[in-house]
Recover the amino acids of this structure.
């Protein structure tokens, strides 16, 4: 773990070398980030890349919010629908969703915020995968998209991505966004299957699928990370 001072604020960071073709920077908390890069990238190239992105790091780190203590949560929204949260000490772990009552009951064998966080994420991820795949299928059929593999991940500052092989990746926590923003993210990545950049052509195509694309994109930049709770 290394550290760097950016505009008077100390950040810690890691360099992750992997089988990739580009350098990428990801914020992981209010004061930490990592850089992923091709396996044989010289360290000085990575440091130069960080220096070029100092302003971006400083600006976007302020948009991240401290994660809430899970046991203090009284409710959460899934695609805009509000569910009351109930935590109960129990001998066995379980999560039960009552759609009609708009309630989620989490039974915990260990009653702590850290344990509740891990269990809630473990139990809600399959629901996120189900919802993302369901809406992807609907949108792909409606707009004639063809995609390959879909991966569900947990990221601090990225909501989705599309690879050159037609694979789609999504932050599972986008299910906590309003439904219109959730579907905008899916359409954004689906559009990258046809235009693999953010050119004028890309935004024109996306707007044909989502007439509020610009407003939704603006909302995500300004409000999106506030809805991430893990």
């Amino acid at each position: 773990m290394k550290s760097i001072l950016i505009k008077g604020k100390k950040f810690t960071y890691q360099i992750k070398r992997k089988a990739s073709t580009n350098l990428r920077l990801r914020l992981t908390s209010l004061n930490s980030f990592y850089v992923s890069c091709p396996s044989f990238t010289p360290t000085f190239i990575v440091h130069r890349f960080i220096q070029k992105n100092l302003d971006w790091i400083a600006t976007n780190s302020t948009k991240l919010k401290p994660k809430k203590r899970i046991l203090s949560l009284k409710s959460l929204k899934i695609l805009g629908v509000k569910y009351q949260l109930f935590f109960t000490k129990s001998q066995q772990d379980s999560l039960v969703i009552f759609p009609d009552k708009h309630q989620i009951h989490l039974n915990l064998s260990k009653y702590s915020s850290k344990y509740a966080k891990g269990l809630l994420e473990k139990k809600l991820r399959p629901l996120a995968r189900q919802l993302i795949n369901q809406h992807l299928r609907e949108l792909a059929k409606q707009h004639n998209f063809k995609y390959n593999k879909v991966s569900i991940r947990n990221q601090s500052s990225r909501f989705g991505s599309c690879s050159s092989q037609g694979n789609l990746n999504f932050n599972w926590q986008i299910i906590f966004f309003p439904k219109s923003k959730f579907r905008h993210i899916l359409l954004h990545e689906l559009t990258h299957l046809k235009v693999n950049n953010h050119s004028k052509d890309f935004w024109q195509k996306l707007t044909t699928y989502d007439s509020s694309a610009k407003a939704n994109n603006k909302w995500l930049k300004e409000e999106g990370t506030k809805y991430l709770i893990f």
Notes: The longest strand covers residues 9-18. The chain has two domains: 2-61, 70-227.
